[in-house]
Structure to design on (440 residues):
């Protein structure tokens, strides 16, 4: 039995606890909308209410559009997924020449390039500039392509350049022509100038001193490849029909796991996959940027498509999405994607985790010990930690897990948090780091 009233109470609690101005949710089954509603305000000043037609940013949901475009081109034999990136972008070059030669389109789609996150350069607005940036930027590789998972927007955006080389068209226009327009997604756009022509557009907010504060839409530059689409949940339902159409066999590749991430989930081609969830498969992608927290996905076995959009940064759109999925499946609204077991870790095992870990984008994670227990400090918050196995720590009470990777001395050198790899500071010089870890 589907209890949407209980779902609405769940959403109201999250909105209150996380100070979310507005949320839109849409759920369809076999192409028919079974639940659709706006919650809260699209604009706190005008008090305009959110509706299913309200346009929000989608952030990294955009990656599913780009991934879909690449898979369409592969089906047409315009490219192959195991093509080296250099086949289509001969000027592509990293400071590690072997890594450059080995990276394939497959690795870009699955974030398994071996390149960690690097500093964003949103002022770069064409692919020639970005390829020049990648040629000069210094980084320590994580390992060989395919060996580790680490979300990397700077490498993913090269898929936009590949679309342009293969088709001779601007990637935004190609996606508009091949995906957006055929689905009659009339309230979906890559372009900020087009956004200004629409009515019922959400105002973006960030949380400052515990209160939502209006912010500007990010311009993104080349990163629009992975985060530039603005849309409504009603339009995303139209988009979801592509994945439900069984004649579109190329979409099946998006739900094949490529690399294990955290819990029982894996990342595939521009999508996260959780198999064996209450007997079904969750295929989804979230997003976050200034003024946006989002989640979109589907459950192929049940013909369910679910979209959740919000107009504020850093809130749990994925929790609302899962609650909607749970309700549609008729299971408890608060069921989690996976539950980490409890593991007893001896006090002398704690030291291998301790240290400061960073991403190339500037995020920092500090693992320290307090009275025989580990704690994590990240994004200005501190969490106590418990172990779920010898390599994994879990933040309490959020139950968010972190998987650590260890060198030959059994000391942690990196940790996967969410979808990003954080690398430990000051453990060894770059040469030894690469020698010790590329073959592990």
């Amino acid at each position: 039995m589907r209890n949407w009233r209980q779902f609405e109470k769940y959403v109201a609690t999250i909105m209150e606890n996380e100070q979310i101005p507005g949320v839109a949710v849409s759920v369809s089954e076999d192409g028919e909308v079974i639940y659709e509603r706006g919650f809260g305000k699209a604009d706190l000043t005008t008090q305009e209410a959110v509706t299913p037609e309200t346009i929000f940013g989608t952030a990294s949901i955009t990656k599913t559009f780009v991934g879909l475009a690449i898979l369409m081109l592969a089906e047409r034999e315009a490219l192959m997924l195991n093509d080296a990136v250099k086949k289509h972008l001969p000027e592509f070059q990293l400071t590690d020449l072997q890594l450059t030669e080995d990276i394939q389109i497959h690795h870009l789609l699955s974030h398994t390039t071996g390149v960690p996150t690097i500093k964003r350069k949103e002022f770069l607005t064409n692919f020639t500039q970005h390829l020049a940036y990648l040629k000069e930027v210094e980084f320590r590789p994580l390992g060989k392509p395919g060996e580790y998972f680490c979300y990397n927007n700077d490498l993913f955006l090269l898929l936009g350049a590949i679309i342009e080389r293969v088709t001779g068209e601007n990637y935004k226009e190609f996606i508009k022509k091949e995906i957006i327009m055929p689905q009659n997604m009339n309230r979906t756009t890559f372009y900020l100038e087009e956004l200004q022509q629409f009515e019922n557009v959400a105002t973006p907010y960030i949380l400052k001193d515990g209160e939502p504060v209006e912010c500007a839409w990010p311009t993104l530059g080349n990163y629009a490849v992975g985060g530039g689409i603005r849309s409504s949940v009603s339009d995303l339902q139209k988009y979801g029909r592509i994945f439900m159409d069984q004649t579109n066999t190329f979409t099946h590749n998006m739900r094949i796991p490529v690399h294990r991430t955290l819990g029982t989930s894996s990342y595939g081609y521009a999508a996260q996959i959780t198999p064996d969830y209450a007997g079904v498969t969750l295929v989804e992608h979230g997003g976050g940027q200034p003024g946006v927290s989002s989640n979109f996905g589907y459950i192929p076995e049940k013909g369910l498509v679910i979209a959740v959009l919000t107009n504020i940064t850093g809130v749990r759109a994925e929790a609302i999405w899962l609650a909607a999925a749970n309700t549609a499946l008729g299971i408890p609204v608060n069921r989690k994607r996976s539950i980490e077991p409890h593991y007893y870790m001896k006090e002398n095992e704690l030291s291998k985790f301790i240290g400061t870990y960073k991403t190339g984008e500037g995020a920092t994670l500090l693992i320290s010990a307090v009275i025989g227990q580990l704690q994590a400090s990240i994004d200005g918050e501190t969490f106590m930690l418990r172990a779920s196995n010898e390599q994994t720590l879990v933040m309490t009470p959020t139950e968010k897990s972190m998987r650590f990777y260890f060198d030959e001395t059994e000391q942690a050198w990196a940790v996967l948090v969410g979808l990003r790899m954080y690398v430990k500071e000051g453990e060894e010089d770059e040469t030894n780091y690469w020698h010790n870890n590329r073959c592990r």
Summary: Residues 427-440 have pLDDT under 50 and may be disordered.
